[in-house]
Every structure is written in C-alpha cells, then in structure tokens.
Design brief:
The protein is mostly beta strands and about 120 residues long. It has strands spanning about 1-5, 10, 20-25, 35-40, 45-50, 55-60, 65-70, 75-80, 90-100, 105-110, 110-115. The chain starts with a strand and ends with a strand.
Length: about 120
C-alpha cells in the first residue's frame, strides 16, 4: 500500500507561482510513476503531468512551459512547481501513483485546493 499526502495549495494571484508537495509513504519502491491530476468545478478530472521512476516527466499541453514536476527520492516527495498561473488553473490538485504503466492510477491523495484569483 502507498499513502499520498498533498500540501502547498492556497490562493494566488494571476501570474503568480505556487509549489505543491506530495509526500509518499509505504511501498514506494514499487511505483512505476507518480503524477498530478486536477479537477475544476463542473469539469472532469484531468491529468496535469507525470514523472516516472527514472525521472522522465510529461505534461498536459495547457501547462507545458509553466508547470514542472520533480522528485526528491531521498525524501519520498514529489513536487509540482506552478508558474504564470491563470484563473483557469483553479482546481483541486491530486497526487497520484501507478504501480505499472496503465491508464488509471492505483493510488490517490486527498487533494489540495489551488485558487488563482485577484
């Protein structure tokens, strides 16, 4: 089992930056990849980006160049650095993890709210 706990959400002005953290515990050595999803009010949950065990990251088109996913293996922590934030980035952000390469993550965090507003 793997437990995921997000932190770092909050209110930020348009154009600002925010960093989310995801602390992982449990059998994390077995994870194939970790990633971030988000869900805005009234919208479907969408994949923001992923990072594999080897450190290869991939992003959804609307966040490319603005968001960066990284991992700090010694701390069992993944980060989502968000810059040039837009109101449409407002959502609940979820940390996720996969045991193997497939469509749906095996584990989810509880989510953290990010609100971009002036």
């Amino acid at each position: 089992q793997v437990q995921l706990v997000e932190s770092g959400g909050g209110l930020v002005q348009p154009g600002g930056s925010l960093r989310l953290s995801c602390a992982a515990s449990g059998t994390i050595f077995s994870l194939y990849a970790m990633g971030w999803y988000r869900q805005a009010p009234g919208k479907q949950r969408e994949l923001v980006g992923t990072i594999t065990r080897g450190g290869s990251a991939d992003y959804e088109d609307s966040v490319k160049g603005r968001f960066t996913i990284s991992r700090e293996n010694a701390k069992n922590t993944m980060y989502l650095q968000m810059s040039s934030l837009k109101p449409e980035d407002t959502a609940v952000y979820y940390c996720t993890a996969w045991l193997q390469r497939k469509a749906v993550p095996d584990y989810w965090g509880q989510g953290t709210q990010v609100t971009v507003s002036s």
